[in-house]
Amino acid sequence: MTPPQRRRRFPKPGPDQPPTPPQQESQDPPEGPKKNPERLYVITGPDGTERSELDLVTLIVAHADPPPSATPEQAALLRLCTAPLSVAELSAYLSLPFSVVTVLLTELLTAELVTARAPVIRQALADRSLLEAVMHGLQRL
After folding, report:
1. What values do phi and psi take at 127, rounded to 5?
2. CA distances from 133 to 122, 128, 129, 141 (A)
3. pTM of structure
4. How confident is the model at residue 126 (pLDDT cuts 50, 70, 90)?
5. Strand, helix or coil at 125?
6. What per-residue confidence (pLDDT) applies to 137?
7. In the chain, where do the E strands start and end?
8. By three-state DSSP, how is residue 135 classified?
9. How far apart are CA 59 and CA 92, in angstroms?
10. Cβ-based neighbour number of residue 2 at 10 Å
11. Better-scored residue on pLDDT, 23 or 69
């Protein structure tokens, strides 16, 4: 009985075969995990509905726990939104593109499981009438 022969990765060419150059490995650095476009389509489904007008800074707040029929991504969104979070933060926490998160949030908004509201923007300067009312109130003390 003969022992098993080990195969070579780069076999030596025989006398009648031309030499083949060995394949070189890629010199590119390994990149992080990439999202497969087909997987993103499966998450969002066919885009037949209109999307809500959501900005990166729109705040999202959940009203209820995830229903049993929710997808894993929708359930994760509902769990994250117990406190107000912006769409940009949700996109970063879930490692999903903004457009995918917008589609998921549109579905949750139509099911009335979340509420979207514009962020509170503070004025650069206080209203003059408010300052005068505070000044007169302090003078009366």
Report:
1. -65, 135
2. 19, 9, 6, 13
3. 0.56
4. confident
5. coil
6. 92
7. 59-62, 85-86, 114-117
8. helix
9. 14
10. 4
11. 69
